[in-house]
Write a structure and sequence with these properties.
It is a single chain. The chain is an alpha/beta fold. It folds into two domains: 43-177, Chitobiase, domain 2; 183-525, Alpha-Beta Barrel (TIM Barrel), CATH 3.20.20.80. It is built from 16 helices and 26 strands. The strands form five sheets. An eight-stranded parallel beta barrel has the order 9-10-13-14-15-16-17-18, surrounded by seven helices. A hairpin with a 5-residue loop joins strand 21 (602-606) and strand 22 (612-614).
Length: 669
């Protein structure tokens, strides 16, 4: 597995006797917007919203002559920026350490006065003018966050993995920015459905673009154990072979990671300034461990009677590939339990340099383990974790009766608040016990919950969101006041969770995570504001979120076209070419049209020589397994005379929404 910071991307080469140069690209919601769009630059559409944004005058254009100027530690981030910009622009921007010139992008470690209120180490100050770009931050992490903002200031096609024609302009702007919370997490469950390291790295890429800085990896569950553990080969030889398979869905073949693969993913996350938090759930959610080791009588590390690890509801244990929970548990009184868990903790903490180890701890009913047994196991395991120099972390159940974790341990609040629910109680108890809290209430952060009733079948669950949890649910809440007695003094951040009972591929995961993850990213990063369905903050967010549609499409990220978002038609020139006879054929533009079928679109091309044709609209419409409504707008035309022609590509969608792209075509015969 490569340890490069981003996956290799293919490049396209543009050539031909007829060149099409972009003049203007308008992404419009309605014909009435056309005049304003043509005369006024749109404000920066940045997600998450920065602390402060002040628009300037004019714009900066990156060209093949642009340099990235940086010294010392900032050079690594400069190389990151050059790597981000290369695939779409085709430019190999040099990273230099000399004095900046006009037209350069400068990155520097510094301490801008505007960041005096920031104590996160992630703040940055960004200035874009017509003559250059200047990014300053106290740390390389802050610089890295800043280049994510630079990416969003550029046209959406900067996310393309193949060369686009540009131009690559940024509006003049002054940005001061730093996060509200230091922990902004995304959890992926690979226990119920296996995902290969390459898929996880793609998800890291996608999340880092929106300043997510923690990746929580759920490595095991009842259906599968996904990491090789030295000394316990059965954990993968037996425990990794299954996955959830229910409701007629075909079960994937399972799988596991080697320790070398895991270590490479940890390094990949770190290269994106993302901490990887490993989780092996205990004492419940571990039927895969029990099934693997229950009969492992030949293992010299065990005492010959490994059956005593099983305190679950079934003895002997049996595989259950449904989504059932609450039936498996490890016995806290078994020496074999501790031999296995200690080996797992020792090896995972050695492979994971981050500060946290997550021991799980959720959904263990007292009919399986008495509360005193549960508390005894949690206390002992947390002590082992602390002894390895890590902070113990777990679902908020670990703060229940009888547990006594070290101050500063982390409880993840997950149950929907309902006054007297156990989730509310344990979040409050966690604070009373000196613990910190990551806010992850299921009805505001669980990305596997359906968007609406029956949508999108067959993906998603409904137990936390009976009527669905769309973008509004993920945006309109406040982590620091959500649970009585739990304030910003206690909350270290937020986390979105992707449980995979119904999600068998990265495409499935993307469809459920996006665009809601962007709402959660803003809740975790941006300053506290009133967030309600009618608040100005939410309406502003929806507009900025709509602008992310073409970016997600260009980056080949699958996403749900939420009807709450005012998605736009967005046309971009392809840089098409023609032969020496003046014949133009093929796609002149690409179209992002979230949620719109090709049959609902009409398109035309005014060739600029007095002729107009109906354009072809080809591509794959949005489904739960394909990139969202990305189309090619094409035509076929031969110019009779050489010259420069203004060509207009127009697409009209439902309800009169229109986008027009004007290009200049110079034909030579």
């Amino acid at each position: 597995m490569s340890s490069d910071r981003r996956p290799t991307r293919t490049r396209a080469r543009l050539a031909g006797a007829v060149a099409i140069a972009l003049v203007a690209a308008l992404a419009l919601n309605s014909p009435a917007l056309a005049k304003d769009a043509a005369t006024a630059a749109a404000p920066p559409q940045i997600v998450p919203q920065p602390v402060s944004t002040t628009a300037g005058h004019g714009q900066f254009t990156a060209t093949s002559h642009t340099r990235i100027v940086a010294r010392g530690p900032a050079q690594a981030i400069a190389r990151d920026l050059a790597g981000y910009l290369h695939p779409a622009t085709g430019y190999r921007l040099p990273v230099v350490s000399g004095p900046p010139h006009a037209g350069d992008i400068t990155l520097a470690i510094g301490h801008p006065k505007s960041l005096s209120a920031d104590h996160s180490g992630e703040g940055y100050q960004l200035d874009v003018t017509g003559s250059g770009v200047s990014l300053s931050a106290p740390t390389t992490h802050g610089l890295y966050d800043g280049i994510q903002t630079i990416r969003q200031l550029l046209p959406a096609q900067i996310a393309s993995p193949v060369v686009r024609p540009g131009p690559w302009t940024m509006p003049s702007v002054h940005v001061t920015d730093y996060p509200r919370y230091g922990y902004r997490g995304l959890m992926l469950d690979i226990g119920r459905h296996y995902e290969p390291p390459s898929a996880v790295e793609q998800l890291i890429d996608q999340a880092a673009a929106y300043k997510i800085n923690t990746f929580h990896l759920h490595l095991s569950d009842d259906q599968g154990f996904r990491l090789a553990i030295n000394g316990f080969p059965n954990l993968t030889a037996i425990g990794s072979q299954g996955s959830v398979g229910t409701g007629g869905r075909t079960m994937d073949p399972g799988g596991f990671w080697t320790q070398a693969q895991y270590k490479a993913v940890v390094a990949y996350a770190a290269a994106h300034f993302m901490t990887l938090v490993p989780e092996v759930d205990t004492p419940g959610h571990n039927n895969a461990i029990i099934m693997s080791e229950y009969g492992d009588t030949a293992n010299p590390r065990l005492d010959g009677h490994p059956q005593d690890i099983n305190c679950g509801a079934n003895d002997p244990p049996a595989w259950n590939y449904t989504g059932a929970v609450g039936y498996s548990a490890l016995c806290p009184d078994s020496a074999n339990t501790w031999t296995i868990l200690t080996a797992i903790i020792d090896q995972l903490t050695a492979l994971s340099p981050g500060p946290y180890y997550d021991l799980g701890g959720d959904e263990v009913p007292t009919t399986v383990l008495e509360q005193s047994q549960y508390a005894a196991l949690v206390n002992q395991e947390a002590g082992i974790v602390n002894g390895r120099g890590r902070t113990a972390m777990g679902w908020a159940d670990i703060a229940g009766e009888g547990t006594s974790l070290a101050p500063g341990s982390i409880a993840e609040y997950w149950e929907p608040a309902s006054g007297s629910s156990s989730g509310t109680v344990t979040a409050t108890e966690a604070v009373q016990k000196g613990m910190k809290v990551v806010m992850a209430p299921a009805n505001h952060t669980y990305l596997d919950q359906r968007y609406a009733r029956g949508v999108p079948a067959p993906l998603g669950q409904t137990w936390a969101c009976g009527r669905g949890c769309d973008v509004d649910q993920f945006y309109n809440w406040d982590p620091g006041s959500y649970v009585t007695g739990v304030t910003d003094d206690n909350v270290i951040g937020v986390e979105g969770a992707v449980w995979t009972e119904t999600l068998a591929s990265l495409s499935d995961v993307d469809y459920m995570a996006f665009p809601r993850l962007l709402a959660l990213a803003e809740v975790g990063w941006s300053p506290k504001v009133e967030r309600t369905a009618t608040s100005p903050a939410y309406q502003d967010f929806l507009g900025r979120l709509a602008a992310q549609g073409p970016r997600l499409t260009a980056a080949a990220v699958n996403f749900y076209p939420s009807p709450e978002v005012p998605w736009r038609l967005d046309l971009t020139a392809t840089g098409a070419a023609a032969d020496r006879h003046g014949h133009v054929a093929g796609a002149l533009a690409t179209l992002s049209a979230p949620g719109i079928a090709a049959t609902a679109l009409t398109a035309s091309i005014d060739w600029g020589d007095g002729s107009t044709d109906t354009a072809t609209v080809t591509g794959t419409p949005a489904t739960t397994t394909t990139v969202n409504s990305s189309y090619a707008i094409g035509g076929d035309h031969t110019y009779r005379k050489p010259g420069a022609y203004r060509v207009a590509v127009t697409v009209t969608g439902p309800n009169g929404a229109t986008a027009t792209l004007t290009v200049t075509l110079r034909a030579k015969r």
